[in-house]
Model the fold of this input.
Amino acid sequence: MPDLVAQLDPERGKMSDDPALLPATALIDHYRKKSLSPVEATKAALARIAALDPALNAFCLLDEEGALAAARAAEARWMRNAPQGLVDGVPATVKDVMVARGWATRRGSKTASNQTAEEDAPMVARLREHGAVLLGKTTTPEFGWKAIGDSPLTGITRNPWSRDHTPGGSSAGAAVGAATGMGALHLGSDGGGSIRIPCSFCGVFGIKPTFGLVPSAPPSQFAIVAHTGPITRTVADAALMLSVIARWDARDPYVLPPAARDFASGLDAGVNGLRMAFSPGLGYAAVDPEVASRVEAAVEIFADLGARMELADPGFASPRDAFWSLWCAAAARIVNGIEPSRRGELEPGFLQTAECGARLTAIDYLDAEAIRAGLVERMNAFLDRYDVLVTPTVAVPALPVGQDLADPSRQEFWIDWTPFSYPFNMSRQPSANVPCGVTRAGLPVGLQVIAAQGNDALVLRVARAYEAVHPFALPDITCACEPSSS
Done:
């Protein structure tokens, strides 16, 4: 069988000429020159799905007929030199916690309705309005509650770098799809790290935008900390995608005022002169030595590029307990809306989390919210002194399939091995995962870039500066063979 996922050369940054592996920006350029059509690109993505998804399980719904029809319509528009929008004809996916017209939204749960939606959620609507070819829906753990890529409804989603390992969650299928060419643009959501964690584990780029920048409806049950954003193979693709989906929509009560912009503008301005703080552990987090080493090496690259790097912690205590209170309360609200007779179908860990939330008092919740608000204030002050903060994205490499904790002797919940993600959901700053190498076992490592609220373009710019000198590699997966174990 021919190599189905070519390696991007980390030394020269050469892209494969396989349409399925081309970034969206390259696809658009091909469409404009008539050297490739949206139908060819869509067929290539569908072929990749057919070849790889049986082993990886990134999709829970595939609409091949609808995708090809959309691709043919896009092809006709490009032939008339009249593209519908910024991503006309680009294959894209939707995470299965988001509503998409004509498709069911199952949220990884056996208890969810199989009824098809009559309208698109805002971010899905914006992609469709700009001509994206929607391939289908990607997998998520039940209601997106945890950072591991499995659910009672769809089973185990596997990491393309090592199928014995999890891709992370909750945007599990989206990150796998990005890493393997099963679409160029992928919608993810992030309530405690659900974009950045799987992007770190799968070696792709993903950004959690400023809270409220990308509208969502109906609002997530985790809405107070929930963000929606792009998962892609390149920073430029994420900038393009964010330019499409960061548009005001009246259906989201948390949406920011209208302020459409081109996030690709200034993308290659570099980091020379930027004030960058590096916090290897936020003052309290334990980090796997290999992860720490890869991130420290990446920080040195920023310094070589002219950034003014300083070792500095933001100075807040771990907000673990406060975040967990907010998270458990939302889980309890979800379970409260499920018929008691169906609750036995829920994943035990999710049900346990909801039960924890049900025991919280209103004062407990307000105390947690006060800590969250204090974290916003602390980070606002810190990012007034620095342009960006850099940390590891996740404290550990990808966990083995079937293992929820990196160190069960010291950890209780998934938040205990991902201490770098959820604080910035609480503080609402934009933050992104930037792939920065692999461990000796071949598992990806990511560094996280955080900027002040509204400075999403700066996060993209910093990520692009690193990518320009250290291109992201793709997993060298050659066939849909079975994993060696689990």
